[in-house]
Amino acid sequence: MPSNSCPSVLLIYTGGTIGMIENPETGALENFNFDHLLKHVPELKRFNYRISSYQFNPPIDSSDMEPLYWAKLVKIINYNYNQFDGFVILHGTDTMAYTASALSFMLENLAKPVILTGSQLPIGVLRTDGKENLITAIEIAAARNDKGEPMVPEVCIFFENRLMRGNRTTKINAENFNAFRSFNYPALAHAGIHIKYEEHLIIRPDTSRPFKPHYLFDTNVVILSLFPGIREQTVSSILHVEGLKAVVLRTFGSGNAPQKEWFIRLLKEAAERGIIIVNITQCASGTVEMERYETGYHLLEAGVISGYDSTPESAVTKLMFLLGHGLSHTEIRKRMNMALAGEITPNIKKKR
Prior knowledge:
Blueprint: E1 8-13, E2 20-22, E3 29-31, H1 37-40, E4 50-55, H2 67-79, E5 86-90, H3 96-106, E6 107-108, E7 114-117, H4 130-142, E8 155-159, E9 162-165, E10 170-171, E11 180-181, E12 189-191, E13 195-197, E14 212-213, E15 221-225, H5 232-239, E16 246-251, H6 261-272, E17 276-281, H7 294-301, E18 305-306, H8 312-324, H9 329-336
Parallel strand pairs: 1-4, 1-5, 5-7, 7-8, 15-16, 16-17, 17-18
Antiparallel strand pairs: 2-3, 6-14, 8-9, 9-12, 10-11, 12-13
């Protein structure tokens, strides 16, 4: 078991910009060996922590992230669960929100912090944001309250002074250090001179139930983003992809879509074939309210279900997760309307 006097953190390096240094001869960015972490980040020596590391070999670019690697991360965390107080995953930024969302569902009843972080500049560059992100993520992973409980027993992303629930985040910037935002849920903590935790926003585990890791996914899911002028053939082709089981439908505003006869007909036929269609908004902030306008209500009649204020990353990984566990069509629809890990805020249904 982890020591109460000396917090312990396991660093898991998957790949990404944060783990790169510049080759002085070629100028190319290369992954460095995390066995030499303290050499590159000497500030970590000031922590009275036991810090161990695990490195993917070879490291992977986050563009190549997929469920196979999510399962690997869960296996690493599960295997080391009783040996460490918290976990920090170093990850490329491009798909970090997908990984954070997936892990939030895979690590059921999590009682320890799992903090994902990365950087926009390599950790070996003078102006890197990587050092600050890494140091603070480790501090959060090790932090405990007055009762000796972890401050944040959730899967989170820490980036540029904000700690955000992982399944609420989206990458919004490829250039600046403020790469991630959680538009529909407040930050769980802000890092300034002190780290200020918003304890009332943090999910606590059910102490009567054990931690339960999951590994199964079904990737027969697509994201369909609507746009003015979208063609019938395009929608039909997507909804008739062989083996398709679920669709994340990205609609306009509060969940609105074209009222063309062919569009509603194709959705209804897909729903009748057993394809689960989840409606989320293309807007960065806000929620789907299909009862609000006539256009949204027609989607309800066609068998489309609400994704409320879910991010695309959370909606697609949640569907993959539920489909992977062989649940019935009815049960999946039910759970998509439930918050499994704080990923959505269901609306109170209005009478029509």
